[in-house]
Amino acid sequence: MPSLDRRSVVAKGPTLEFDATIEIVGVNPYVLVSDERATKLRPGWRRPMPVLVRINGRPDSPWRTNMMPVGNGEFYLYLHGGMRKSSNAKVNDDVSVSLSFDESYLNGPLHETPDWFESALASDAKVMANWERLTASRKKEVLRYFAGLKTDDAKKRNLVQVLRVLSGARERFMGRDWIDGA
């Protein structure tokens, strides 16, 4: 889940404004950003691109998220529930998109590892080894997801799942397939 921290968000580069239809791949709603549009934000960029986004003019201070490369120069701009709710938009809706490169983006985890997760990692060498071999972006994704969990039941349920996938179980967790702990 993308960061909900929208403090001090200022676009410094070009802002793209365009109309698009919200589509869905798997369980993930998105807007496709063409190669031409992405190039206007950052020419030659081929990795996840940090952006500031507003949908239908909402919210007042834009969301921070990463557009994910498709592989042909295009990007998926995934729209989490908070984005869609604040803009009153759903899958198949036509929306107005305002998009700019997030110049203030900082690489690396924005969320600390929760104590309950850190102690579970430390208790199993295989799980810890698989956690350590995850890419920085995958770790960041997991920690961001955990930071959004509200109830103890949700934390326990998700801890069981993440330990299972990190131990090598082949299953889906956080909207993606995990195989051999990654």
Give a description of the structure.
The protein has two domains: 15-101, Elongation Factor Tu (Ef-tu), domain 3 (Beta Barrel); 115-178, no CATH class. Helix content is 31%, strand content 29%. The protein is built from six helices and nine strands. It is elongated.
What does the average pLDDT come to? 88
**Helical proportion, percent range:** 25-40%
Strand line-up in the sheet with most strands: 1-7-4-5-6-3-2
Name the structural class: alpha+beta
Tally of individual domains: 2
Rg computed from alpha carbons, rounded to a whole number of angstroms:
17 Å
Q: Which residues form runs of ≥5 with pLDDT under 50?
A: 1-8
Please name the fourth-level CATH homologous superfamily of the largest domain: AF2212/PG0164-like
Q: Would you count the extended β strands for me?
A: 9
Question: What is the CATH first-level class name of the largest domain?
Answer: Mainly Beta
Task: State the end-to-end CA separation.
Answer: 18 Å
What is the H/E string?
A: EEEHEEEHEHHHHEE
Main beta sheet, described?
7 strands, antiparallel
